[in-house]
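Technical annex B. To support the medicinal chemistry partners, we prepared a structural model of the target in complex with magnesium ion, based solely on the information shown next.
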Amino acid sequence: MQAVDIKILDSRLGTLWPLPAYATEEAAGMDLRACLEAPLDLAPGQAELISTGFAMHIDNPGVAAMILPRSGLGHKQGLVLGNLLGLIDSDYQGPLMISAWNRGSQVIHIEPGDRIAQLLFVPVLRPALQVVADFGESGRGIGGFGSTGHQ
Ligand SMILES: O=c1ccn([C@H]2C[C@H](O)[C@@H](COP(=O)(O)OP(=O)(O)OP(=O)(O)O)O2)c(=O)[nH]1
Ligand SMILES: [Mg+2]
């Protein structure tokens, strides 16, 4: 896909710390850094909005981005997202923010520049909705929420 425009809002990005980039040749996500002014101790249960230091304009309705936790931090330390997943609209031009949530039981120490989350670009379908009186028959029908059992 075409390159996505970003605006640097924190001059440490691209100088002191690398710009967001794919860590390996085939990485799906780009790590996002905590552009904090000072180290942050996130208490158990606490959530803070942390700037990524840049704004982004995807400008393509067929594409969105998602902010996801990093697996290691999420599993081992309990550093996840207060919104569980951040959805970035194609027309959003504001600063990209991370809702950092300590879902664990120990304080999590975050240093300025730490890579605390990741950004994933995804294709988006935007169908119109059509109102009908009845649906055609399907294999599942209205069964859900465990209707097919466990085994
Ligand atoms: O983790 C996130 C989630 C969202 N956003 C930005 C980009 C997104 O396009 C915008 C709005 O997000 P969303 O639609 O999920 O939030 P909302 O509560 O519905 O706000 P709005 O009324 O502005 O749509 O906020 C972030 O920077 N980080
Ligand atoms: Mg919204």
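Notes passed to the chemistry partners:
The two ends are 41 Å apart (CA to CA).
The chain has a mean pLDDT of 97.
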